[in-house]
Design goal:
The chain is mainly alpha-helical. It folds into two domains: 505 residues, Amino acid/polyamine transporter I (Up-down Bundle), CATH 1.20.1740.10; 70 residues, no CATH class. It is built from 30 helices and four strands. A two-stranded antiparallel sheet has the order 1-2. Helix 11 packs antiparallel against helix 24 and helix 23 crosses helix 24.
Length: 729
């Protein structure tokens, strides 16, 4: 056919369209969805639409309004509460500045490569986690369902923490702050300080008694805490309203929820550096303890933190990237978001220990004053001689250095009877070595430090509003990891699914706002995600590198990005990352087996925390959480393996196979044994029944660009073929 002949080309196009119509007219009525999507072939060049799953109508997939909005969404999802209250604790516990070495090493080995992998498959296939892994291998389709289950478990208790933050935020608009001092109790004869508060501290008492009104054990429910129930409802309403329109609604909120925490952290850092003792805290934090860095436990905890900090395995990363254009540079995104996450953790660590250094300095000053008064009493009673006190020491305005000098002298002179004197060593390092994390850091230690700030209510409002925004950013990604795969797979309305999901989660979440709810939060945090997510990510790696094929995946990346990714990723994905993940899985199982399963219960009478083992029914819940989270993987595998679901049922996978083989098998392209679209090799799929076959044997057809999931992927090979010889029809 002459290449420049418009008349001949139009005739060919008409013949092609008629051929397609003849072909489709012989399909079964059950393939109606397939017909409608295929008849839109000639319009693909005009619109980049999404018809990959055989939907009833040509459904345009939502897209991010801008690259900045997408980056902020990924940053908001990956940067969460763990960056503020987990990373500083691990840094302090595992060698200070030396901890950054194993963390950065593991970020390069497993963090960035696996984050890049999830971004790439989501962007390439443009589906949620269920659709992505179903395409690559239907037998591993359970990976996506497992991710959804884990996301749901995490969302249940994560939003409770947002509810706690909302409660503290609402209580911060008063001066003095309600947790500034212990409450007084009045009776008929006199007024006294609340005993539980006097034995602990004002902030500790407020957290356990006023906020949580906590019971003494997991078995003691105590009924609902109505203050926290209202806060939990408010948190779920916020999440529902933000997510109800998908990225169209949540994307706009990202500008505030993702950026505001950085404004607050910078304000706290500047304010903290101006406080007395802040430099001591930062110096203590980053003083490297190189001997600790060689311990295996440090590397295990660093690997775990890298893994969870980036949100690997949750499905949120895949869901967000699925709304990108296919030519987006996701490699740049992976590196950028990973390092933003890392530097956010370092920034949060600076802030936390600047403030804790200030708090330690205040506590140390009180210690010096109290013990100096003891020394003066001992001097008056004659238990200590005035001769042992240096002449320049003035007890009325004694410094910490002078006190420690006197303390050392008395300890040497009165070596035998020193313990009976009741003097304490007042060292800032001793206070800073008291490692706290999680709720203990956010709702006790940090809130106590803020009570000593000038204009403390303002800083309290800023801090808890920051926690709310950090939590919401992570919740958006977590809920997206549930909603997007289900909408893509089962074609339900996103608005209805979002409302139902949030309502069900709120009702189940009522167990976390009982008086014993904090213990259930600990249980879910320890057992619902760690092992299941590690297994999910290991299977993700295997699915791409072994089942789909690492060489083919690298070719797809080249086609999608426009350049070949570094061979570094090839070796990381194929050898190093799976090995490190397996070691981490084994280490986590061993650590879980060696650690007695239990929780820290608050004992009201003694005002202390006491470790208690889970009851039998509690252990059953812990095991059930892990089993339910990973159960979809073997179930889906067995269902596919035993062909318990009929491929002609119109399911997602069936439609994909049918469309793939109808278009691709007659053409018989070489070297395309499997693809991200088909999920099966052509040899595994039975030959289609065309009825009246209108195609002749192709003897001279030109080579076609059939890269899986290309811009016009899914086997739409007849959309643009102006140079096809006339004899081929």
């Amino acid at each position: 056919m002459p290449k420049n002949s418009k008349v001949v080309k139009r005739d060919l196009d008409d013949e092609v369209i008629e051929s397609v119509k003849d072909l489709l007219s012989n399909e079964d009525s059950s393939d109606d969805a397939f017909k409608k999507s295929e008849l839109m072939v000639d319009d693909q060049e005009e619109k980049d639409v999404d018809v990959e799953e055989g939907s009833d109508v040509e459904d345009e997939r939502p897209a991010w309004n801008s690259k900045l909005q997408y980056i902020l969404a990924q940053v908001g999802f990956s940067v969460g509460l763990g960056n503020v209250w987990r990373f500083p604790y691990l840094c302090q516990k595992n060698g200070g500045g030396a901890y950054l070495v194993p963390y950065l090493t593991l970020l390069l080995i497993i963090g960035i490569p696996l984050f890049f992998l999830e971004l790439a498959v989501g962007q390439r296939i443009r589906r949620g986690s269920i659709g992505v892994w179903n395409y690559i291998s239907p037998k591993l389709g359970g990976i996506g369902f497992a991710s959804c289950v884990v996301c749901f478990f995490v969302a249940l208790y994560y939003n409770v923490i947002i509810g706690w933050s909302l409660f503290y935020f609402s209580q911060s608009f008063q001066h003095p702050l309600p947790w500034d001092q212990c409450p007084l109790v009045k009776n008929t004869s006199h007024t006294f300080v609340e005993p539980e508060c006097e034995k602990s501290s004002a902030t500790t008492y407020y957290w356990y008694r006023e906020a949580l009104n906590i019971s003494s054990s997991l078995s003691e429910s105590g009924g609902l805490n109505w203050k926290m129930t209202i806060c939990l409802l408010a948190a779920w309403v916020m999440v529902c309203l933000a997510m109800i329109k998908g990225i169209q609604s949540s994307g706009k909120i990202m500008y505030f929820s993702s950026l505001f925490p950085y404004v607050v952290l910078l304000c706290f850092l500047i304010r903290g550096l101006l406080l007395n003792g802040s430099v001591d805290g930062i110096r203590h934090m980053f003083t490297p303890k190189l001997e600790i860095m060689l311990e295996p436990k440090v590397w295990r905890e660093a690997a775990t933190q890298v893994f969870f900090a980036l949100g690997l395995g949750f499905g949120g990363v895949i869901a967000f990237s699925s709304y990108n254009k296919r030519d987006n540079n996701c490699h740049f995104d992976a590196v950028l978001v990973s390092f933003i996450n890392f530097f956010t953790s370092v920034l949060a660590t600076l802030v936390v220990f600047a403030v804790l250094g200030f708090k330690a300095n205040i506590i140390n000053e009180k210690c010096v004053i109290q013990n100096s008064e003891k020394i003066l009493k001992l001097l008056k009673t004659g238990n200590l001689s005035q001769d042992m006190i240096p002449h320049h020491i003035n007890f009325s305005s004694i410094t910490a250095e002078d006190y420690n000098l006197v303390y050392d002298i008395i300890q040497k002179v009165k070596e035998e009877e020193f313990d009976s004197l009741g003097l304490k060593s007042c060292q800032i390092e001793d206070e800073l070595n008291k490692a706290v994390q999680g709720t203990g850091l956010a709702f006790i230690a940090f809130t106590e430090a803020m009570t000593h700030f000038p204009a403390s209510p303002f800083w309290s409002v800023m801090f808890f509003l920051m926690l709310v925004n950090l939590g919401l950013g992570s919740m958006f990604g977590t809920i997206e990891g549930i909603i997007t795969p289900i909408v893509d797979t089962f074609k339900v309305r996103k608005e209805i699914l979002t409302v139902v999901c949030c309502l069900v989660a709120f009702l189940i979440g009522l167990i976390f706002v009982q008086r014993s709810g904090n213990y259930f939060v600990t249980m879910f945090d320890d057992y619902s995600a760690t092992l299941p997510l590690l297994i999910v990510v290991i299977l993700e790696n295997i699915a791409v590198t072994r089942i789909y094929g690492i060489d083919k995946f690298m070719e797809d990346l080249k086609d999608m990005l426009g350049f070949s990714p570094s061979q570094y990723y090839y070796y990381m994905w194929k050898y190093v990352s799976p090995l490190v993940l397996l070691l981490l899985l084994v280490a986590s199982i061993v650590q879980m087996a060696l650690s007695p399963p239990g929780y820290s219960a608050w004992i009201e009478d003694m005002a202390i925390e006491e470790f208690r083992s889970y009851p039998t029914w509690g252990m059953i819940i812990c095991i059930s959480l892990m089993v339910l989270a990973i159960l979809p993987v073997p179930v889906v595998f067995m269902v596919r393996r035993c062909n318990l679901i009929d491929d002609s049922s119109g399911s997602l996978a069936a439609v994909s196979y049918k469309r793939g083989r109808i278009i691709k098998e007659p053409i018989n392209l070489e070297g395309d044994n499997t693809s991200l679209i088909h999920g099966k090799s052509p040899s595994e799929v039975p030959s289609p029944n065309f009825g009246k076959n209108i195609y002749r044997k192709q003897t001279g057809s030109p080579t076609l660009d059939t890269a899986p999931n290309g811009r016009y992927g899914i086997g739409y090979l007849m959309a643009d073929m102006p140079d096809m010889p006339e004899s081929d029809l």
